[in-house]
Amino acid sequence: MVIERVPDVVFKTRVRDESVEGPNPYRWQDKTTQEIFGGKRVVLFALPGAFTPTCSSTHLPRYEELYDEFKAQGIDEIICLSVNDAFVMFQWGKQQNAKNVFLLPDGNGEFSRKMGMLVDKSNIGFGMRSWRYAMVVNDSKIEKIFVEEGFSDNYGDDPFETSDADTVLAYLKGTEAPAEKPARLEFVG
């Protein structure tokens, strides 16, 4: 079965709430796939982990830097997804000074699994993580997906060639090299 829409999941997020007393004014808030992707054109890029070298030095910062150009191409929101919990994603966002990209925690890896993108990275002590990819989602339908080569458990390298901000932006501007066939994912689990 080919996956054409983002899977239905509930993300466990934390949101600032001034009514919460104490030094940590945040509360849990569930966000559904429909709330995140419904009626919007979204770019989501997924990466192996917050605070990791490529993710921190290049992947997230470049999407943040090109945010206005994505908006000019009709993108409503840019989302960075990682199999990390909400606390880690929040602290990483603070450290990265992320103001435009929404950091979405896939703490249990449910979205990544249903996308067919959950891989075992135990070879480097990470456990189960998301494979690196990006996609353009239009009202919950996957319009285009950019999956890094080498998808497999315990893959030796961490490829970063096709899910970068410049490649996705080139697609949106219509300046990408034509693909042989549209990218599709096989549904796993």
Q: Average pLDDT value?
A: 89
CATH topology: Glutaredoxin
End-to-end Cα distance, whole Å, is 11 Å
Radius of gyration: 16 Å
User: Strand-and-helix sequence, N→C?
Assistant: EEEHEHHEHEHEEEEHE
Name given to the CATH architecture: 3-Layer(aba) Sandwich
Which percent range fits the helix content?
A: 25-40%
Strand order across the biggest sheet? Answer: 6-5-4-9-10
- Sheet-strand content, in percent, reads 25-35%
Major sheet characteristics: 5 strands, mixed
Provide the number of structural domains. 1
Compute the number of strand runs: 11
Q: How would you name the CATH homologous superfamily?
A: Glutaredoxin
What spatial form do the alpha-carbon principal axes imply?
Answer: globular
Write the layout of secondary structure elements.
Layout: E1 2-3, E2 10-16, E3 26-32, H1 33-37, E4 41-47, H2 53-65, H3 67-72, E5 77-82, H4 86-96, E6 102-105, H5 110-115, E7 118-120, E8 128-130, E9 133-138, E10 141-147, H6 165-173, E11 185-186
Parallel strand pairs: 4-5, 5-6
Antiparallel strand pairs: 1-11, 2-3, 4-9, 7-8, 9-10
